[in-house]
Amino acid sequence: MWNDIWFLVRMTILTTFRKRGNLLLYFGLPIVGVLVASMLYGSQSTPDLRVGVVNEDGNQVIAADTIRFVQGLSHVKLVNTTKEDLKKGIAASKLDTGIILDAGYSSSVLKGKAEHISIESVKGAQVTAYIKSMLYGYIDNVTAMGSIAAGDTGKFQQLNETYQAGQFKLTAESVNDKSSGQQMSYQSIGFLIMFMMTSAVNLSQLILKNRENRTYFRILTSPISSRTYVLSNVIVNLIVMIIQITVALFFMKVVFRIDAGIPVGEMVFILGLFALVSVSISLAIVSFSKSTAAAGALQNLIVTPTCLISGCFFPRSIMPEALRKLSDFMPQNWVLESLGKLQAGEALYSIGFNIVILLAFAVVFFLLATYKFGRNNDARNFV
Amino acid sequence: MNVLELRGLTKKFGDFIAVDNMSLQIREGEIFGFLGSNGAGKSTTINMISSLLRPSGGEIRILDRDATKQTRFAKMNLGIVPQDLAIYEDMTAFENVSFFAGLYGLRGNDLKERVQEALEFVGLSDKAKSFPKNFSGGMKRRLNIACAIAHKPKLIIMDEPTVGIDPQSRNYILTSVRKLNDSGCTIIYTSHYMEEVEEICSRIAIVDHGKIIAEGTKEQLKATITDVKDIRIELKSLDALDLEQLKSIPGIRVLSVQQDDNMVRIQSDAAVDNLNRILKQLIDSGMEIRAVEEQAPNLETVFLTLTGRNLRD
Ligand SMILES: Nc1ncnc2c1ncn2[C@@H]1O[C@H](COP(=O)(O)OP(=O)(O)OP(=O)(O)O)[C@@H](O)[C@H]1O
Ligand SMILES: [Mg+2]
């Protein structure tokens, strides 16, 4: 059976993607989605932060390390300056924020209590808050190490090196403008969801198309069963959607450098789950349609409006309460909500309920389609 | 050995009986003609044989095995040429045939060879790389046949394979049917063209209202109607024709009119001498007779006599 399925899958993919137009339709559009989302929400993102550093603590190891840490933060550009120039620079908007290390900073850290450090800025709290939170996290760590070293510079350095080789790198990767990156990725995925659903219906429609050109019945007179045939269609569909997900995420992360604030694995998991839902919905649509035209009409009636309500095109927060309630019945909403929760820092296991709901959607629509397919096996058009 | 055997095959759609207790045996090496007017139940029978439809009753045996139970075996040995084209317009001729042959488990070089063979058989080798959208009607029909034979089935069922095509393609198809038969295939052939059936079929069944009403070689079938004569009268015009009046003449069984050539066809008891009365009646009602002809019975006469209808009504 798997031999047959593989044969059918290969033939379908070969003939479908022989047409350039289909390649663009299935894989170009998700990229366009990411592009559009990054244009819609990308304008708010700030370029590199220009941080002025005033180091009056001399050549102390800890001071130098602190500066290196700030420099290591992404989207940060360091400028060495003096207290006076720092004030001027900030006033003239040449600098976004400044860090001042007064004499005695390093030794205070070594003693286990950071003093003689301050942050200056005129910009909105957001920028300073970012630098502050990163820096304070760092300082907490180094002071802790300072306590352990109890004034022994050599021991401190050793501790610090081990530590930096480890988890410190992770922290330094974070992006400053997290919220706009999240919004961009959220919306990109909104578009992706829409394209996944449309392409799922398009591919399932092949079943109807093959009924219309009667090749379906020819297949049924061969040793291949209708179940095998439909399964092969489902597999083609899943393959295409997995590629769509990969392409979209690749463009999001690598090309456009948008940070979704969620590990890629979790994103792929949730979207993969939604791929199952899409296939089941598309099969249900096809099972209830007599022709490709009817399926097209059903698709327009179902896919676009539900995507709209679920917030695939713009944030749900701007929609009236009634629509938001309604979207609880749409699987797209559960995907986006899951992503939102993950972005807010919740762990994968804490959105178990969403996952169950998504699975339930998939199961219900699969059953519905199976039931309908079983009932309309009409071979009148053949022979 | 019987390649196909039907035992009391029945199909009901609700209250309507489309195929009615049909029994039939087709032996290896036959070209079996299946004749019947529209709605006689031919396609329904074929759909059941090819397991697209579940029979309401009776049994189908292919190569002495129950086809409804051993579907895989049955399907492996069957090739169906459907009445309406069933090919992919967006695949080349070669790809079409490889796709359908591949469904029977053929792969690799085996597959390639069989596909080439099948295309050669229907005379499309030079079109292997072309798409059917650029094909003529006859070429599409030939491809339709190639798709059904590449897996070398024992039994090939062809439903009207020559409908609506040019004479050249038609001859090609008839020749290839014979060649298939020579290579050991058993063939069931349905057609509306009596001449074709007469020409290639070794045995014929006439189906009407889901039943087989006559079966045998064409000679046997023709012999069954020695008691009927077939008279054709060509008139100048059919305007003043009164069929009811003609029907009242003793001995007349079936009357039919061919509008396009102003022809009246009469099946009448051979034992009753009524030609004079018929002609007199026509002349009396003011009609001008162009020609009168008595035909030796052919399949069409047989069909007309048995069913009371023209095959192409
Ligand atoms: N699925 C169905 N449901 C109800 N009635 C059907 C169905 N399929 C066929 N029939 C009826 O069964 C009868 C036999 O149809 P069938 O298609 O077998 O005839 P046929 O001999 O192939 O005719 P033709 O020469 O026109 O192809 C027809 O009256 C048709 O309307
Ligand atoms: Mg038919």
TrEMBL record, chain B:
Residues 4-234 form the ABC transporter domain. The keyword ATP-binding applies. It comes from the Bacteria. GO terms for molecular function: ATP binding. Keywords: ATP-binding, Nucleotide-binding, Transport. The keyword ATP-binding applies. It comes from Paenibacillus dokdonensis. InterPro entries: AAA+_ATPase, ABC_transporter-like_ATP-bd, ABC_transporter-like_CS, DrrA1/2-like_C, P-loop_NTPase. This is ABC transporter ATP-binding protein.
